[in-house]
Batch of 3 targets.
Target 1
Amino acid sequence: MCRVVDLQQAVLAKNDACARALREDLAARGTAVVNLLSSPGSGKTALLERELTLARHRGVPVAALTADLATENDARRLARSGVPVKQVLTDGLCHLEAGMLGGHLDGWLPPDTRLLFIENVGNLVCPASYDLGETLRVALASVTEGEDKPLKYPTAFGLAHLVVVTKSDIAEAVGFDEAAFRANVERINPGVEIVCTSARRGEGDGALLDRALAARDGAPVHTPVMARQHHPHHEPASVVDPASVTDSLAKSGS
Amino acid sequence: MHEMSIALAIVDQVEITARPAGARAVSSVRVQVGELAGVVPDALAFSFELACTETVLEGAELVMEPVTARARCGPCAHTWAAGMPPQLSCPVCGGTRTELLSGRELQIVSVSWHDAPSAVPTHQER
């Protein structure tokens, strides 16, 4: 007998449920997650190195997970800040998923951590689809990548709570048109804040840390238009209830 | 390419539902894919076929329903197709309080399967 069963389940329901549980567990211990997304080579590690160092000097307990397909190079660089750092090797996977994080945090994340920075795999496509339990999602673009980067990767920039421009010290040399970049971001994520930084010159030092701490302390975080669609994707009830399947089976048996 | 992860998530969810309900073979899975879901349909179709191997979904068809991204301006109520790349500030009044009406769907709508045959009485039982 052939049956057609209505499921109406979000494909990413499992990841979303996992992310929600992680966000709640971490919030209960006073930790908020900051998820950093960018293309490879945009300067995530350099920016993070400065922000982690600043946090340590200010006495703010922070930690960082950094993900790559291979090598522990980024963890070594970030560890110079003196805060707890851990490398996540994805063995070829192009993004992190919420379910991959728990095992890395257990027994490693100090209980007094206020901010956990996650440097996602350098990729503007795949990581955009996965909630990692973050309170603040940050999309970065360096001035060398062109003003239209946000238009080419609308999901990554469209779902960001904060956009960071990096390497602003060479903006003039590469002819970066900041006004055009801002207009492009505004088109896909109206109202999102954009901050310019230079890890080399120190421009924008602390901007990320300050915004992350404010979000952790309950200050309102920008809601992107793309995240505003009422959608089962982000609802807790999307896990299958066997009883409802039985009900729909009864209705749809052919 | 995260479409393989997406395909595995679809197979996982369908198996969880179909196996306990007595499905012998899933013939098709209907999925809504929004224009802004960040999924490439061709890559998903390719991955889905691989992900179904040696599961109750082996050989199942993936039917994808594309969903156009549409937006509505809060202040002026203008409604428009967002397009790609999407225009999510209002093209009429420039307002930023936009509501996304559709386009982010990544949803399993329905599944078709064949039930396991009911137990056939043996010769002795007859």
Target 2
Amino acid sequence: MTLEKKRILIAKPGLDGHDVGAKVIALALRDAGAEVIYTGLRRSPEQIVRIAVDEDVDMLGLSILSGSHKELAASVIERLRIEDAADIKVFVGGTIPEEDFETLRAAGVRGIYTSEMTIESVIAEIDSQLS
Amino acid sequence: MSDAPPLDRRRISRALTRVANAPVAEVLAAIGDSKVQPAFRIGITGPPGGGKSSLINALVQERLSPGTLDTLAVLAIDPSSPVSGGAILGDRIRMDAIADLPGLYLRSLSSRGARNGLCDNVVDLLTLLEVQGFDEIILETVGVGQSEVAVHEVVDTLVVIVPPDAGDSVQTMKSGILEMADIIVVTKADMPGARRMASDLSAVLNERSGRSVPVLQTQADGRGVADLDRAIDAHRNSIVENRTEETTRESRRRYHLRALADRQVEEALRANPEITEGTLKASYDRLLATLRA
């Protein structure tokens, strides 16, 4: 794997308190060699963007189960632009209905990873985004 | 807070990444030899799960409270996986109360294989933060046992935390990291045994070393942290009186040189695997020749 020295932020925005999926992804990324920063629960888009900038991450994953993925992803991506950090790639994981994929991609989301995908394929996609 | 300009977070964090991943020659070019004003450095160390991150969460609020410092940087080191080399950097989970403070810059670091509780380029990163003009730096080590005392060499004030349930492990810590402590904090002081732990530590350390090491108690809700804040300032004042700035600069320069030399040797061995061939003497001569080249 080529994720060595890559820095990836796994963030939990919004109000849902379930982070098993976020932790599974974080561990799989670590096992692929990445340095994974985990925010903990219930962070605002402002906080997440500040963390992404402070930590100088290559990629930012939003784990969202609350259904507000469109609003939260758009808000984070807009704030990254304002902070001159639009080069940080954003992906979204969680329960995302397929009819929302188009909207998310149009907003600038680079990857959408649902619970139907295997962990291996998620890591492989992240790996190809970052190489 | 004064009316200091806001931190240029993007620039600072980019600079840290560059230095963290650069070969020694580039590091030297980046941090230069400018005589920067050394920042006051506080080290926080102790066993895994002992409450280091929670303590920093509370301590930073005290250090950055109105009328005190303008800017403070925290470097928090977590261990890398010896298998994959990757790392989970989770110190922020317990640092939510300080997430929005404008004067704070917080960076999580992987130990990247180092075994001394730090990471091998931590001095480069500390120096870079000083170049960026931070007033104060807090360094959180990896959760350590007794022997990871290197942090002592890179900070001004070393705070060693001990949870009340540390039990017998304190016996072994007595020779080692506890001897290096400037301040000891018994965390989770609402747990049974905390007061006993504090008085035992106080008795043993102050009797044996002949110096007076404050032993404080703190709780996760922030109780006791104002005392720690004052104890840190008191220690800072005592070292300003007893140690000249040249002494600090000299001993840090020595540590920094050793760290750079270690990395240069690592780089040379990785780039030239043939160095290790033949007798030990031949390998050694080849290594020195490679370093000189």
Target 3
Amino acid sequence: MTRLRLPARLAAAFCWVGFTVAAAVAQAAAPAVGPAAPPAAAPAAAPAAAPETGADRQLVFGSFRSADNARGWAGELGERFDRPFHVERVRRRDGDWYRVRSGPLTETEHAALAARAAAAGLDVWTVRGTLERPDGVTASTPAVAADAPPAAMPAPRSAAVAQPATPPPAGSPPPRARIQPAPAPPAGAEVYADVDLGLQTRTYAERGSAGQSRFQPSVSARLEYSRTWDDGRSGFTFTPFLRVDAEDDERTHADLRELFWSRVGDDWELHVGARQVFWGVTEFNHLVDIVNQTDFVENIDGEDKLGQPMVQVSLVRDWGIVDLYALTGFRERTFPGEDGRLRGLPPVDADAAVYASGAGRHRVDGAVRWSHHAGPFSFGIHHFSGTGRDPRYLPSLVDGEPVLIPEYHVIDQTGFDGQALFGDWAWKLEALSRSGDGPRYEAFTAGFERTLVGAFGSRGDLGIVVEYMYDERDEAAYNTLFEHDVALGARWQANDLAGTTALFGVIWDVDTEEYVLSLEASRQLGASWEAVLEGRVFGGAPPLDAGAPLAFDGEVKSRALQDDDFIQIELTRYF
Amino acid sequence: MGNLGRGTGARRPAFMVMAVIGWLGAAAAAAGTLDGRQALPDLDGLAPEAQGLAIFEEKDRRESGYQDLQVELEMVLRDRRGSEARRELSISQLEMADDGDRLLVVFDTPKPIRGTALLSYSHVEGPDDQWLYLPAQARVKKIASRNKSGPFLSSEFAYEDLALQEVEKYDYRLLGREACGDAQCLRIERIPRDEFSGYSRQEVLLHEPTLRIERIDFYDRHGRPLKVLTNEGYLLHEERYWKPQRMFMENLQTGKTTELLWREYRFATGLQADRDFSTNSLMRAR
């Protein structure tokens, strides 16, 4: 749970200068197909079995781009067939291949092994004559979840029977064994695609103050596609997201959470495209986190973010990591629509957003952050210069209806986030000084988290979080509910098979006595389902008078939320 | 276990003698066959504590020099009622010249936590540095490594069972020798030095010719038998490193078990400290 910002309404148009660039770069840097061969295999110490009389043929069980995969497959075959298998390197015009073969066989042995291979559903083929010494050892490598060789390679059907008399001509790619389906290890994988679909229902305690529905079902889809090449030094990531909401048109939205190309050097990284960047250490309020715009219709906790187009350079040095950002293309905050809940009164008309800067949403923002750790301490210091992510809200009339219009300002923000770990205690501080949207001001969030391992004699861990949030502007702080608030939280991690976790929190404004109660709990259901329960209760603010003027009340900022207590259940299926 | 690791790292002066012996041993090994079977250093005349330490120093020496390694791990968790859960992880490890090793663990399944990653810098002295990456928030969080006695991913393995096992983190004592299978095994008691360990002591059974760990009996803080680990299916990698394919941990007090299946070991693949083991690399380790 976190930052409750002033509810309001959405800006839709995605005007992403950076994206076209990113997409073009990603296209231009068209990835090479197929795994890169790793460093050469260990020196061969394997005794090539001396061919016995009549042992004049061999069975080939597959060819791989990667020596590791070949050796892994040889190891797995070794276990399965209880005999040694060899790996040889084959040079071709298209590079090196690693071929897994049986070693010399007599006619009888050949027939027996070919039959066993066929029974196991493996495509194998025969070569005659003796081959040069094998380029690597065998059954000393355990079973492997082999990535399949490039799909372009044809697998001869039942080649063991067809028996080509000679190895295939050098120009044709070597056949391969049909690898049994095995989960490819993502760390070594070149490509990963992941899809998850979510079904969410929000149930509110009562109808909205403008008569909105008590039930708000929605569905969501998220794809994550990533591929790396050039031995992991180049990469491309694509993560689109879509939600369709039955009640709120503005909550029906799509976003490119990520779409970027990366190049990784020995001590630097370059990323071009839309990314997600998080700064900060505290749990209830993400005060210094400013790179990405909040996707406010997704969740009011400020933890869902819109993809931010950028060019990021990251330098890894002995004295820490320096990140330099050029943020190309401003993203406007999303806001619930008229039929949505958890919104301002009146609703925010995001489409009517105005900019204090003449450059408007096309301004290029810049940021730099230095982060480091030493002993128990870790910290980051940053400066951001550009369009602030939090708008002010201007009461206005659009088509005769009262609305709030978001107004974005150019700001300069310098901030610090740090953490000190002493035993089970983690001490945390986020602080910033900002100018540009009114007089310069300072704000901080500070607190600690204590973890009790095996609490109450159970397997579970209990974390206690205490934080204090301060903003010197007090009532004038238009972009936060937290100016003098205390937060208490309890995080329970059951350490059970289902990975059950729960986080309960209460935020209390010590001056106005407004409070927010929150609960988030999650549990895995089998290997590919997850259930998440979320609930919030708002209280302490005097109720709205039916006839009262609809205006921003700095003293009781959560007044508009008082009717919006809700329980949310989300089921997600991962593919 | 030391399967996830061991450290080279700076030795204290008290270990200088062992370091010299280790160097001699390395020279002998280089001259002879590298089959992972070597004679133990001479233990005669040493107290059982020094013998135990000498054996683990030797084990550490034999397992060092790998530069870096990568391996895939599948965990199978079972409780008494037969419920089962699986987790798949990718593990990378880097040997550091002047400090403890570095470790990167990336969670592949279950899908809801895919991309979550743990980075650990072990230190010969002082607590380890650990960071957790939470992909849903793109957040890197430094976490307390003191929580070492807690379960690792809800398994019967505690963080400390799988952490990089620097020799200096225990006190040792050779209890005796006994037959195990066709060979002889060494039974060594080791007592964690860390006050936050979940164990009062462990009894480790080492296969003498190779110093492979065959079995560990864990005792809880009250001295009661807690868990038993058995390692199986050892394979020799790079003609030097013995690694089990299967580790089986049984909790004697709850009946729960965890099986670890290790696959696709790769050594000296050219991983680098800044590129592959910085907090930046956590974020792209998906």
